[in-house]
Amino acid sequence: MNDTPMGDAGLQSVPALLHRNATTFANAPAYREKEFGIWQSWTWAQTHEQIEALALGLLDLGVAPGDHIAVIGRNRPYLYWSMMAAQMCGAVPVPLYQDAVAEEMAYVLDHCGARFVIAGDQEQVDKVVEVQDRLPMFEQMIYLDPRGLRKYDHGKLHQYSHVQDAGRAKRDELRAELKRRSDALNYDSTCVMLYTSGTTGKPKGVVLSNRNVIETSKSSSEFDGLRQTDDILAYLPMAWVGDFIFSVGQALWTGFCTNCPESPDTMHVDLREIGPTYYFAPPRVFENQLTQVMIRMEDAGRLKQWMFHYFMAHARKVGPAILDGENVGAMDRLKYAMGELMIYGPLKNTLGFSRVRVGYTAGEAIGPEIFDFYRSLGINLKQLYGQTEATVFITAQPDGQVRSDTVGVQCPGVELKIAENGEVFYRSPGVFVEYYKNAESTADTKDAEGWVATGDAGFIEEDTGHLRIIDRAKDVGQMASGALFAPKYVENKLKFFPNILEAVVFGNGRDECTAFINIDLTAVGNWAERNNIGYGSYQELAQHPQVLATVKAHVEEVNASVAQDEMLSSCQVHRFVVLHKQLDADDGELTRTLKVRRRIIEEKFGDIIAALYDGSSEVSTTTEVTYEDGRKGAISATLQVQSATVTPVAQKMAAE
Fold it and tell me: What is the number of alpha carbons within 13 Å of residue 507 lying toward its C-beta?
C-alpha cells in the first residue's frame, strides 16, 4: 500500500512538490551521497534549504525566467538540486551527458542557447571552455568541485558553494522575487528539456512540461505501489529521461530517498551498501552483471560450480512461478528454499539486489535468457517500454503478468494503437510539448490529436492486451525471400553469452544474414588468463583461433534457437566477423545511451560487410578511432571471416 498522500491540490510544479516534501517529510532522508568512503545524508528540509540558497544565488547572477541552464556531471545531489533550483527561478534545466565530447556538448549548448552552465568538475569545465567561443548566448559557469580550477580565469567562473553563500546573504532582498517566480509555475510551464540520443541524426531537444513529469510520476508510482520509505541508486546518466523521472519526478512525488554512488568505479560496492528497494537498469547493465557472475563461477572450485549449476537449473524451472505466486509443489518449494539459502540469497546480496521489491529494465530489448535468469533468483524484474517523448512510460508489466517476450500493458492514462504498417502509436498525459526549435520534426512525430509515432514495430496480443515489440520500425525489413528480418531479436540472443558484448546483424534485402561481433574483453580476457594465453591488445585477442571457435559455437547455438521461431527462422547468421575494435560512442558507432547506430556502422565498415557477402575468407581494413584525450588515430587489421552452421528449418518441423 502506498503510504504517500496522493492527490494533493496545487502540486503543479517541481518546486511545489519540493516544498510539500520539506514540510510533510521534513526529517526523512531525501538524498545521500558517498564521498571519501562515507555516506553523507540530507533530509527533505535540508535539501529544500540547499536548493533555495542556490536559486537565490542564481537570481543574484541574473538568471531570468525562460533561461536555459545546462547541467553537466555525474550523479550528485548538488546537480539534482541545480535542476530544481533552475526550475524555482523559472528557468529550464538542460542536463547533458557527462561523457559527451566537447563537440557534442557544443551542439546542445548552442542549440538550446544556454546562458548558464553548472558543471561538476574540471573535466566538464574544460569541455565548455574549449567551445565557448562558439556559444554566443553563454555567459556564466558554476562549478561544483574546485580541484584544479584555482588558477583559472574566474571572470565567468563561480564556485557552487560561493553562489549559495551569496544567495543566503541576499535572502531578504531576493526571496520575494524567488517566491513570485516559483508561484507563477503551473502544469503548462516547462519542467525540463532533455536531448534525444541521436540514433539517426542530430539530437533533438524534447520539451517536457510539469504536467508531463508530475502526471507520469504520480501514475507510475501508484502502478507499482512506490513508497516514501523506498531507496533508489541514481547512477544512470542525468541527461537520460529515465534517470530524471526516477531520481527527480518519482522521488519528489513519493518522497523516497535518492542515493548517489561515489563514482562509476564504486557503483557496485555502493549498490550493495544501499540495497535499493526500487531499481532500474538498461539491459547492458544486467548483461554485464551476469558476465561478472559467470566469470566468478568459472574461477570457483568444482563443488561450488556444481552447486551453482544444479540449483540454478531448478531456479529456472520454478523460480518465476514462485515469484508470481503460482502453485508450486512442496518438494520444489523446499528445494528452492535450499537454493535460496546456499546460492540465490548470497548471489543477490553480491549483486546488491537483496532488498529489491520493484525492478525494471528498458531502453532496448533484453535477451529472454538474461531476463529469466534474474527472475529465477526471486528478483521482481519487469520490463517497461518508453521514450523520452512519452516522459518514459508507455507500457509496463504488472506484478503477476511478467513475461520475457512482451513489454506489458499500457500504463495508466496511456492509449495505444497499431498503424497498418505495424508501427506503434500512443498518446498520454506524458506526451512531450514539442521538439525545441524544430516544428517540422514535432509535426512528423506528434499529430494534431496528440498521437505519437514511436518508430517501433509491434502488435498487441488480443487475449492479454500485452504489447510485443518486434524491432525498430526502420530496422525491420525483409530478406530477399520475403521473410521477416528483425535484427534485434538475434542480437539479444547473441549477447546472452558472457563472451559477447555487442552484436550487429545485417540481412535486409539479402539472401542471408551476417553479423559483426564484439567480444567482452573482461570475460574473454579472464578466460585467456586462466588458460595462459598471452595477448597484447583487444585486436589480437579478438582474432585468436580459440576465441573465434568459441564465438562460432555461440552463433550456431543461437541459430538453432532462432530456427524454432517460424516467423524469424530466416534470420539465422550464416557468416560473421569478430571486429578488431569495440564499437564506441566516441567514434559515433553507439549513442551515449549505448544504442547501435546501424546506418553509421554500415557506412563505416562497408568493406567488411562486403567481405561477409562476397565469399572472402578474410578482409584487411583500416578504421579511424578516437583516443581518450580526443586525438584521432587509425588501426589496421586483417579479420577472419567465419562461416556458421545454419539449422535447417524443414528438418526441425519434420522432427516435430
Answer: 32
Is residue 388 within 8 Å of residue 194, measured between CB atoms?
yes
CA distance 157 to 61: 11
Chain-centroid distance of CA 621 in Å reads 32
Looking at residue 217, its pLDDT comes to: 97
- Three-point CA angle 10, 225, 432, nearest 5°: 55
Is the four-CA dihedral 78, 84, 86, 88 of positive or negative sign? negative
455 — alpha (psi -120 to 50), left (phi > 0) or beta? Answer: left
**Contact status, residue 237 vs residue 209, Cβ threshold 8 Å:** no
Residue-level pLDDT at 651: 47
For the domain spanning 477-655, the CATH number is: 3.30.300.30
User: φ, ψ for residue 471 (rounded to 5)?
Assistant: 180, 180
* Closest to 241 measured CA to CA, from 195, 284, 188, 210: 195
Residue type, position 253, single letter? W
Cα 601–chain centre separation: 21
Q: Averaged over 388-396, what is the pLDDT?
A: 96
Cα 412 to its chain centre, rounded Å, is 22
| Residue whose C-alpha cell reads 571552455 in the numeric block | 129
Distance CA 261, CA 439 (A): 39
Domain segments of the chain as ranges: 15-280, 283-413+454-472, 477-655
Residue 365 is predicted with a pLDDT of 72
Strands 415-418, 423-427: pairing kind: antiparallel
Fold of 15-280: Rossmann fold (3.40.50)
Look up cell 505466486; give the residue: 325
Distance, in Å, from the CA atom of 514 to the CA atom of 215, rounded to the nearest integer, reads 44
Closest by CA position to 199, among listed 366, 362, 387: 387
Inter-residue contact 259 to 352 (CB < 8 Å): no
Written as nine digits, the cell of 293 is: 557472475
Q: With contact defined as beta carbons under 8 Å apart, do 99 and 593 qualify?
A: no
Nearest CA to 79 out of 252, 194, 251, 247 is that of 247
Q: Which of 257, 258, 255, 253 is CA-nearest to residue 12?
A: 253
Given the DSSP bridges, would you call strands 116-119 and 68-72 parallel, antiparallel or unpaired?
A: parallel
Give the per-residue pLDDT at 198: 66
Look-up of cell digits 526523512: 28
Identify the pLDDT of residue 373. Answer: 93
**Mean pLDDT in residue range 630-640:** 89
Q: Strand pairing of 257-260 and 231-233?
A: parallel
- At a CB cut-off of 8 Å and minimum separation 6, what does 397 contact? 382, 383, 384, 403, 406, 407, 408, 409, 466
In Å, what is the CA distance from 119 to each residue of 145, 260, 599? 8, 17, 33
Grid cell listed for 251: 522521488
CA 458/CA 26 separation, integer angstroms: 45
Task: Give the Cα separation of 71 and 83 in Å (integer).
Answer: 7
How many CB atoms lie under 10 A from the CB of residue 553? Answer: 14
Residue with cell 557527462: 98
User: By percentage, how much of the chain surpasses pLDDT 90?
Assistant: 76
For the record, the C-alpha cell of 157 comes out as 567562473
- Which triple of cell numbers denotes residue 163? 553562489
Q: How far is CA 53 from CA 244, 533, 546, in A?
A: 22, 58, 60
Strand residues in 210-367 grouped as ranges (E)? 231-233, 257-260, 278-280, 358-361
